[in-house]
């Protein structure tokens, strides 16, 4: 019979136990060694031991071994384990990929704002980031074009406690938009943009059910040209509502737009 051997390791050298968390689908964690953050897609049993597949907000997948103390959940070290047949209710995510906060109330609006070019841009941002923006107290307004942006910034009066972020369509070097952006960019104003002619193009074609966005000849209204090329009725308002209805989460948007909106939200919510 084996005799009992006491653990003589000093208490201050012993590793504190960490909670075991079932790797339920959609649970958002960060892998400790690499810093990769993503939602659980699946767990698998391999010859080397159990693994978990994570998907980040840009749709990239990575597989990690489910090692003890291998992940962070809301900043705390945990050990992921394979979920049982009757695991706890899994957390849900907002359309932007953030962890949902059940019962959270909208924060009182900040002085800072995010401006986008038009109504379609504002509706798309609301569709994907609306829950996040309400919790952060960030209001989104639209400009109906960037020509008046310098005057709007001047009237707004941005400062340390009232930052202004602006999302511009087709912000490419040498464009009119880039010249206007250069006039207003400063410590408390951040202007970013995506390369698309219109925010319609920031929706993945596969989500809309088309192979690609059509190339519209110069001199022709782009949205009307898209409707003609795709055989849709030349009603751009109805076409946009059709496109918007296909956007269910960040996975339906191109990374070039995702990164810019996240950048603006971070900018206007920085501590004073």
Automatic annotation (TrEMBL):
Stretch forming the signal peptide: none
Start and end residues of each DUF3097 domain: 20-83, 113-269
Domain of life: Bacteria
UniProt xrefs under InterPro entries: DUF3097_C (IPR021447), DUF3097_N (IPR053883)
Pfam families: DUF3097_C (PF11296), DUF3097_N (PF22845)
Segments crossing the lipid bilayer: none
Name listed for the protein in its UniProt record: DUF3097 domain-containing protein
Organism: Streptomyces pakalii
